[in-house]
Amino acid sequence: MSDIDPLIWTLYKSFDLLGVVLNGMIGGTIARQRNFDFVGFAFLALFSALGGGMIRDVLMQKGTAAAIADPTYLLLAIAGAAFALLTHLKGKAWEYFRVHGDSIILGVWSVTGCVKALTFDMPLTSARVRSD
């Protein structure tokens, strides 16, 4: 990944981390709607924010999962969960933001999966499967 333009890398990393925060907020919102206790709330929010990437990295077996190797992921997941815990997110504006933000993040995380798979010289079919 050293041959990627620094501006593109910064933009990519920013969207990736924004996705962690947003999915922490979404998981927290769902936990609040279902009246989960604090442990259930924290689990759902953190799993929503970090679970998919950790599963992807474990399946690839190419080093430590990004969410464990870089503490920024965990801190931002906790920040998103805390925001959802302290703020009652509801209404038309939140739904609009959630749906469109989730769509953008899904695309970014698909690219993340493909880039990681191709970086580790995995076949194109593996890159396609790991991006979903």
Could you explain the architecture of this structure?
Residues 15-88 form the Glycine transporter domain. Belongs to the UPF0126 family. The protein has 6 helices and no strands. Helix content is 80%, strand content 0%. The two termini are 21 Å apart. It has one domain (6-130). The mean pLDDT is 84.
Summarize the structure.
The protein has helices spanning 6-33, 38-60, 66-69, 71-86, 92-119, 124-130. With 132 residues, it is mainly alpha-helical.
Mind sketching the topology for me?
Blueprint: H1 6-33, H2 38-60, H3 66-69, H4 71-86, H5 92-119, H6 124-130
Please mark out the parts with pLDDT under 50 across 5 or more consecutive residues, or reply none: none
The overall average pLDDT, rounded, is 84
What's the Cα radius of gyration? Answer: 15 Å
> Beta fraction of the residues?
under 5%
For this structure, the quaternary state is: single chain
- Summed up, the helix count is 6
Binned, the helix content reads over 70%
Largest β sheet strand count, sense and barrel closure: none
Note the run of SSEs as H and E: HHHHHH
Family: Belongs to the UPF0126 family.
InterPro entries: Gly_transporter
Transmembrane segments: 6-26, 38-59, 71-89
Keywords: Cell membrane, Membrane, Transmembrane, Transmembrane helix
